[in-house]
Amino acid sequence: MPNNKEKNLTALVIGAGFSGIGAAIQLSKQLGITADIIEHSSEVGGTWHSNTYPDCACDIQSHLYSFSFELNPDWSQSHSPQPEIYAYLQHVAKKYDLYKSIQLNTTVLKAEWCKERNQWKVDYAHNDHYDKIQSKYYDFLFSGIGGLRIPKIPKQLEGFSGTAIHTAQWDSNIDFTNKRVGIIGNGASAVQVLPFLQKKSSKLYNFQRTPSWVGPRQQTEFSNLVKFCFRWIPFVMRFYRWYLYWTYESRFYGFKYPDSKFAKKVTQLLAASISSRLVKAGKPDLASSLIPNYAVGCKRFLASDTYYETLAQDNVTVVPAGVDKIEGNKLWAGNSAYEVDILVLATGFEIQHPFGHLDIIGKNGISLKDLWKNEPPKTYKTVMMHGYPNFFHMLGPGAALGHNSVVAMIECQINFGIDCIKNMKRFQLNYIEPKKDAQEKFSSDLKNDLKSTVWLTGGCKSWYQNDNSGSVNLWSGTVTSFWWNLRNPTIKDFVQGHESKKLV
């Protein structure tokens, strides 16, 4: 970058979850940039701060679902609960002194590229004072808002006359004791919260339009001796992490191509496992409703040691249909009505529209969220977009996973962004932005790679796919292939940003 010694580069990180915390740390470690961080919530943690429903946890083992540069020997169990993951992120933020740069309870309203300055003008406001908008200019913008942010609430469910709650907006003051409870959905949050609801309620209805593939979690408690070994014996924890990584990577080949012999065998074994669990629980007749008729991996693969056993309890009724309408406290599904006192929505998030009210306005005056509403999202290397210079978006289209730790993907994306900034300085560019043809090629290649995979041919509808057809949220390969793809930014793929005023 021309005359970069005369200018202290600035960066804003939006969000303080895994993506935001990781980006801020690497900007400081690798580039010496102390980034500002704006977080909408009252604390760091992202989805692990906002999701507090009972038994909330991660399906990926904790020694892998953590930063590679900040391993934790003190995880209490293989799949740690939400409070531990939340505490881990708080610990990391404190260790790397990020709190001094974080504005909590603050919302970014708009970020607009300013051609005259080659910077982003960012408008933001404290949550209690939206009328008092502040503005600041930044050289770089890192978006860590993630997709698990805005709860998805179907319109037909808005008229419920009883108590309604979304799992992402949990209210611990609600008493479920001896109540008739309905829960809509059977994704990760539903699978995790069901045992709690079953134990508390007098009657529990689980409405699920299509069943999910749920395998055993095989939860393991770590003894003090094991944690001692992780902490004090060199390389034990690192070796264990690599073992987990390659174990999860191997799962990818169990369902990527649904017609393969391997995938068919996995489906057969998993179906047999579900049937066996239901037989042991005394409800073999539930198998017809709970064993999916689509390929394993088409929807997110889930893990639980108690899910099928919970659905087999006497006070639980599985309703194999979606809720079509609501009249008062009466839910209509499959031509039958079910009266409930409390309605729990485990209906997921607005994955395809994560920006909410935030406007990211690029060089041509186009809002990114409007652009992605009108056509299938396209990116360069899943991180950058043509027309949006110096903007790096974590966990956007093409970066989700169905088999491994998404934290590894985040770290790859962050390092890609850091390498882009290094190249920008090396080649003395005023800004860095992918060329349109490079973006088109990457997006086209990704789309072609996905055509024959389980996510498009597995026979289901999931959040992996968008309304305009085609999978836009998922990476088509392994995490290793993702790392390889993002390892070295190719300078010829970028606009030569010399035409505007230099940053001095």
Write a structural description:
This is Putative flavo protein. It comes from Absidia repens. One of its GO terms (molecular function) is flavin adenine dinucleotide binding. With 504 residues, the protein is an alpha/beta fold. The protein folds into two domains: 4-150 and 350-493, 3-Layer(bba) Sandwich (FAD/NAD(P)-binding domain), CATH 3.50.50.60; 155-217 and 259-294 and 304-345, FAD/NAD(P)-binding domain. Helices cover 31% and strands 15% of the residues. It has helices at 18-31, 47-50, 82-95, 188-200, 224-232, 236-251, 261-280, 287-290, 307-311, 368-374, 406-426, 436-450, 454-457, 479-486; strands at 11-14, 36-38, 102-103, 106-114, 119-126, 134-138, 140-143, 163-166, 180-184, 203-207, 214-215, 302-303, 316-319, 325-327, 330-333, 336-339, 342-345, 359-361, 391-393. The strands form five sheets. A five-stranded parallel β-sheet has the order 3-2-1-7-19, covered by helices on one side. A five-stranded parallel β-sheet has the order 8-17-9-10-13, covered by helices on one side. A four-stranded mixed β-sheet has the order 6-5-4-18, with no helix packed on it. Helix 1 (18-31) runs parallel beside helix 11 and helix 11 (406-426) packs parallel to helix 14 (479-486). The N and C termini lie close together (9 Å). 46% of the residues are buried. The model is unreliable at 1-6 and 500-504 (pLDDT under 50).
Count of helices?
Answer: 14
Write out the CATH superfamily name of the largest domain: FAD/NAD(P)-binding domain
Report how far the terminal alpha carbons are from each other: 9 Å
Q: Architecture of the largest domain, CATH level 2?
A: 3-Layer(bba) Sandwich
CATH topology of the largest domain: FAD/NAD(P)-binding domain
CATH domain class of the largest domain: Alpha Beta
Low-confidence stretches: 1-6, 500-504
What's the helical proportion of residues?
A: 25-40%
Task: Give the spatial strand order of the biggest sheet.
Answer: 3-2-1-7-19
| Major sheet attributes | 5 strands, parallel
Relative strand content:
15-25%
Question: How would you classify the quaternary structure?
Answer: single chain
Mean pLDDT: 92
- Structural classification: alpha/beta
- Categorize the overall geometry: globular
What is the gyration radius calculated from CA atoms?
23 Å
Number of strands: 19
Please tell me the total number of domains.
2
Organism: Absidia repens
Family: Belongs to the FAD-binding monooxygenase family.
Keywords: FAD, Flavoprotein, Oxidoreductase
InterPro entries: FAD-bind_Monooxygenase_sf, FAD/NAD-bd_sf, Flavin_mOase-like
